[in-house]
Design goal:
Blueprint: H1 2-16, H2 23-32, H3 36-64
Helix pairs in contact: 1-2, 1-3, 2-3
Length: 73
């Protein structure tokens, strides 16, 4: 869960920062230019990347900490 929150925080800082060059800055550029398809595409990409990063961390957890049981819920 921490990786997804870190990912969200990083992108929010890119939107706020005047020197951002990532997806957050691209989203802000689309907002400034009223390019709604670009903004939607960036949101889809951010959602996809967040989900992928979460499952990468889950897979790494199973590999390196397989002895730790996850509690449901």
């Amino acid at each position: 869960m921490a990786v997804t929150l870190a990912f969200i925080g990083t992108n929010l800082m890119e939107i706020v920062s005047p020197h951002g060059r990532g997806l957050g800055a691209l989203f802000d550029s689309g907002k400034t230019n009223s390019d709604y398809p670009l903004m939607f595409a960036v949101l889809i990409a951010l959602a996809f990347l967040g989900i992928v990063l979460y499952y990468v961390v889950v897979a790494l957890e199973k590999i390196f900490a397989g002895w730790a049981e996850r509690q449901p819920g």
